[in-house]
Specification:
The complex is a heterodimer of chains A (310) and B (292). With 310 residues, chain A is an all-alpha fold. Chain A has 2 domains: 54 residues, no CATH class; 225 residues, MetI-like (MetI-like fold). Helix content of chain A is 71%, strand content 1%. Chain A has a two-stranded antiparallel sheet. In chain A, strand 1 and strand 2 form a beta hairpin. The longest helix of chain A is centred in the N-terminal third of the chain and has 31 residues. The radius of gyration of chain A is 23 Å and the shape is globular. Chain B is an all-alpha fold. Chain B has a domain of 143 residues: MetI-like fold (Orthogonal Bundle), CATH 1.10.3720.10. Helices cover 72% and strands 0% of the residues of chain B. In chain B, helix 4 crosses helix 11. Classes of the chains: A mainly alpha (310), B mainly alpha (292). At the A-B interface, helix 1, helix 2, helix 4, helix 5 and helix 6 of A face helix 1, helix 4, helix 5, helix 6 and helix 7 of B.
Chain lengths: 310, 292
């Protein structure tokens, strides 16, 4: 899983500055110039964003008798459909809860340090983001193998003697959660740290003068003020987590038959399309995943008011 | 009170160091594994250093695996990532400028759609994109990977925020009064001021493209086209470590140090970029969010 592309959060000060400088309204330039500047992007948006979405819906809904939900019903009845979504839900549950708690705690702790030390920790936390995806899975294959792992003493504590013991099917949601945390948490810690820095210093000083200790200040002042970034992280991570593919795919190759090649919905869609030649059914699963992503996106953009749109 | 504060700080430091170990240990292991033989990787301490000569011979073995397969994968990754990033910048910078500093019908709608597609995970679109690329006979060409990479709405949003919050309107108006065309205003006034955001968008686009696995996995169909991310999977499936029946390339066996070396080579370009971008990443990633 990659560091979420939306790791740069909208800046509240930016809107204030824009309000001062630009009067809150874009201006200048002729209408024609506006069309000219966005033209190439609009072509890409239509061809690579809108068209495939429409195509997926069309394929998923087209049946020999016209439009219908036959392909959705087909996939729903497919024996790997429910387990694939259950796996994802289980993984998301473990990952989102642990990531939220740990990222918030670590960001709060990092925020109490002097700048130089805090900067070093943030860099160390962020660095694994460089190996998101396939590289991270390969490294974690060795971390989960009791023969090679620096954490072998922990694995032995669970009576794991072989890689196959560690990556047993029941452990996979936890394993994928650890991998996702490894590559993604650092980015979020940096974001939370940035959000914490946006809290006016006077507010924290006032709380301290009133006798609030570091723990109370974190719990009662800082946490409520970064709540919307926590929601932002949760929602975005949920959408990204529903798309799991590379982790079970490579782990499946490495363990040869131990992990179902249809472990996640994306893998199932891939299997239906390229192994069974059932592209319409695969499109139906893509639509399921698209709808999850769309709902999350619309929720964030219009209800969450997290993004600047003037 | 003071004692309690010190206890809190001590606990915080212990927790932070424990998590730093969690993040760093796998990377240290990755650096050290190629210095050892396969036997040493299993039997020596995970943090033991083997030898530089072993590191060199492992590097040579990986880089010459099946002729120049690793170099082919790296070249493909570079073509996909640089091509995708270049096109993403060509689209995103003018679009962000247009959305932020010009007025046209549909501007707000375009901005709204951009935000929605930016948040939607791109992976969900991979199969429909495959079908679309297949319909226009692009499968197996570099364009089947580069073009989807070029569509980078997050970059448009970043450019929009930057232009709308950083470029003073008066400056643009003055350039227009001086007779500059709309293109001239963008090219000679706005663009030179946009270097930081161009770098930031390039960074995010390149890292995302280089690390992408699923899209090229679907769009390409043989070793000569795979990027290094998919190549890593090929190496795993060829390795006797995980697949005892694997034959690899008949004569060359892939062991643990080789896989570690291949992974190290695969992440090296992004790792170097991370190192150089360190200051921006940990402090400037959030505009206005530095602890000054």
């Amino acid at each position: 899983m990659t560091v979420p592309s939306a790791t740069v959060v909208p800046d509240e000060r930016a809107s204030a500055r824009r309000g001062r400088r630009a009067g809150g309204q874009p201006a200048g330039g002729s209408r024609t110039a506006g069309y000219f500047f966005v033209a190439f992007y609009v072509v890409l948006l239509l061809a690579l964003g809108i068209a495939p979405t429409v195509y997926a819906f069309a394929l998923a809904l087209s049946t020999p008798g016209g439009l219908g939900f036959a392909h959705f019903i087909n996939t729903f009845n497919f024996f790997d459909f429910a387990p694939a979504f259950e796996h994802i839900l289980e993984f998301e549950g473990i990952w989102l809860v642990s990531q939220t708690i740990l990222v918030v705690i670590l960001a709060l702790m990092v925020h109490t340090l002097v700048r130089r030390v805090s900067s070093a920790f943030r860099f160390v936390f962020y660095l694994p983001g460089a190996m998101a995806g396939a590289a991270s899975v390969v490294v974690w294959l060795f971390m989960f193998d009791p023969h090679t792992s620096p954490w072998a003493f922990v694995l032995h504590g669970f009576h794991y003697r072989l890689l196959a013991n560690t990556v047993a099917p029941g452990n996979l949601p936890v394993i994928f959660a650890i991998m996702a945390f490894f590559t993604g948490a650092g980015g979020w810690i940096v974001i939370m740290y940035g959000a914490l820095n946006n809290i006016p210093r006077e507010l924290i000083e006032a709380a301290e003068i009133d006798g609030s200790n570091a723990f109370q200040t974190a719990l009662r002042i800082k946490l409520p003020l970064i709540r919307k970034w926590i929601v932002y992280m949760l929602v975005l991570s949920f959408a990204a987590g529903s798309q799991l593919f590379v982790e079970p795919q490579i782990l499946g190759v490495a363990t040869v038959g131990e992990i179902s090649p249809q472990w996640s919905p994306n893998q199932l869609a891939y299997y239906l399309a390229f192994q069974l030649d059932r592209f319409n059914d695969a499109a139906a699963i893509s639509v399921d995943l698209l709808v999850i992503g769309l709902l999350v996106a619309v929720l964030l953009v219009w209800r969450g008011r997290l993004f600047e749109v003037d | 009170m003071l004692a309690r504060r010190y206890v809190f700080r001590l606990i915080a430091m212990v927790v932070l160091l424990a998590f730093a170990a969690f993040f760093v240990v796998p990377m240290i292991w990755l650096l050290l594994a190629p210095t050892k033989t396969d036997y040493q990787v299993i039997h020596a301490s995970p943090f033991a250093f083997g030898s530089l000569s072993q590191f060199g011979s492992t590097f040579h073995k990986v880089i010459t695996y099946q002729g120049d397969l690793m170099l082919t994968w790296l070249k493909n990754s570079a073509i996909y990532a640089f091509g995708g990033t270049a096109l993403a910048l060509l689209a995103a910078i003018p679009a962000g400028y247009g959305l932020a500093l010009t007025q046209f019908i549909g501007r707000r709608a375009l901005l709204g759609i951009t935000l929605v597609v930016m948040i939607m995970p791109a992976t969900a679109l991979v199969l429909p994109l495959f079908l679309e690329a297949s319909a226009v006979h692009l499968i197996g060409t570099v364009w089947s990977v580069i073009l989807p990479f070029a569509f980078f709405p997050f970059g448009v949003y970043l450019a929009y925020i930057y232009f709308s919050s950083t470029i003073p309107k008066d400056l643009l108006a003055a350039a227009r009064i001086d007779g500059a065309s709309e293109w001239g205003v963008f090219r000679h006034v706005a663009l030179p001021l946009a270097r930081p955001i161009v770098a930031l968008i390039a960074f995010f686009a390149f890292v995302a493209d280089w690390n992408n696995y699923y899209l090229p996995f679907v769009m390409t169909y043989d070793n000569s086209q795979y990027p290094v991310t998919v190549g890593l999977q090929v190496l795993i499936s060829s390795s006797q470590v995980f697949t005892p029946t694997a034959t690899g390339s008949a004569s060359v066996e892939i062991f643990r140090p080789d896989l570690a070396m291949a992974t190290l080579i695969a992440i090296l370009p992004v790792l170097i970029i991370f190192m150089f971008a360190q200051r921006t990443l940990v402090t400037g990633m959030l505009a206005g969010a530095t602890k000054e």
